[in-house]
Write a structure and sequence with these properties.
By secondary structure, the chain is α/β, with parallel strands linked by helices. It has helices spanning about 1-10, 15-30, 45-55, 85-95, 110-115, 115-135, 170-190, 215-225, 250-260, 280-290, 315-320, 330-345; strands at about 35-40, 60-65, 75-80, 100, 140-145, 190-200, 200, 225-230, 240-245, 270-275, 280, 295-300.
Length: about 350
């Protein structure tokens, strides 16, 4: 116990030994096999997390409003909303759930800007009901897939987990409200949690079934060979918005690596899951054109309300504490989506 305490005060002192301890601790938890409920299991990130978690030995139970093709990957799959307390309570009891991965929620910023009431009801209120039901059934381990949108516009320095959140759109405000609720429940109800603040997840695993249909930047370009470029007056080098992109498999790997930490000596964690590199949207289009052999038609538009100017994220804490590192270059992220679309004969 003193050893762990000393490490928390001076990580450089016992780094190798603590890494060895963490590795054993992780293996110990993996072999225990936890019963996990994944909300948003039928979505883009949920699909990739499922593929990553399956070999780990955990028992996966899925919940989503839309039933996907790959329900056979789960021990059981339930069709419904994560805010449906009666359904969630039945799942938690019947399946003896020990941990929840909350991957449900909007991933389209502009949808939340245009229809905030819908998303405050579905995402925020739904999560309140989910967490209330979880605690009533003594489920006190949670991984919440949040968003780097909570930071708002990044300063010239990349945002760390200690950067004060300052969301400028409903999506970021909803994610932050959920994070704050989780932190409060940790104090009042001993909830153990890991919050993962994810940048812009793109790319595809070749085994995945769900290509993102939420209007993200890459899917817009590949499916339409055109892009409405909102905002040409940002305070950036080329006056275009800047974004950090991360392969969705790297996100799924972070989920896998954070799970064993729940229930350890330190019970709560918050990590940025990002590449640590920002690209201008205009430069991103050039990467796509090269990888997909496309000529993309760009239609400059006025800046939209809620549009972040620069999103630069520092993932160092996840690298240091989890041993997690992004494995894929931007070129590979794009190529994996292009190859998936070609394999499924959708376009390109």
């Amino acid at each position: 116990m003193l050893f762990v305490g000393d490490f928390s005060r001076n990580p450089s002192l016992f780094g190798p030994l603590v890494e060895e301890f963490s590795c054993r601790h992780q293996l110990f938890y993996i072999f225990l096999t936890v019963n996990i409920l994944m909300t948003g299991a039928g979505g883009y990130i949920g699909n990739h997390c499922t593929l990553k978690l399956l070999p780990s030995g955990h028992s996966l139970f899925g919940l989503d409003a839309v039933k996907p093709k790959y329900t056979s990957l789960f021990r059981n799959f339930y069709t419904g909303d994560h805010g449906n307390t009666a359904l969630v309570q039945r799942i938690l009891k019947e399946e003896r759930i020990e941990c929840i991965i909350h991957a449900s929620g909007s991933s389209n910023v502009m949808d939340t800007v245009q229809n905030p009431i819908k998303y405050y009801c579905n995402d925020l209120m739904g999560t309140i009901f989910l967490l209330q039901t979880a605690l009533e059934n003594n489920v006190k381990k949670l991984v919440f897939l949040s968003s780097a949108q909570v930071y708002g516009n990044s300063s010239p320095l990349s945002a760390t987990e200690n950067t004060s959140p300052n969301p400028i759109n409903p999506m970021g405000k909803i994610k932050l409200a959920i994070e704050q609720l989780i932190e409060s429940l940790s104090i009042s109800h001993d909830l153990h949690y890991a919050i993962l603040r994810i940048s812009n997840a793109i790319g595809m695993d070749h085994q995945a079934e769900n290509f993102p249909s939420n209007g993200d930047l890459l899917s817009q370009i590949l499916l339409n060979e055109s892009l409405d470029l909102f905002g040409t007056d940002f305070n950036t080098a080329d006056h275009r918005a800047e974004r950090d992109f991360i392969h969705v498999n790297d996100v799924a790997q972070a989920v896998l690596q954070v799970l064993p930490k729940l229930g350890g000596f330190q019970k709560n964690f918050c990590y940025n899951i990002a590449s640590g590199k920002s690209y201008s949207v205009a430069d991103f289009v050039k990467f796509v054109e090269k990888a997909a052999h496309l000529t993309v038609t760009i239609d400059p538009r006025e800046r939209r309300s809620g549009e972040i100017e620069r999103l630069a994220i520092d993932p160092y804490s996840a690298q240091r504490e989890l041993g997690w590192r992004p494995q894929y270059s931007l070129e590979y992220m794009i190529e994996s989506s292009v190859n998936w679309l070609k394999t499924h004969e959708i376009c390109i």
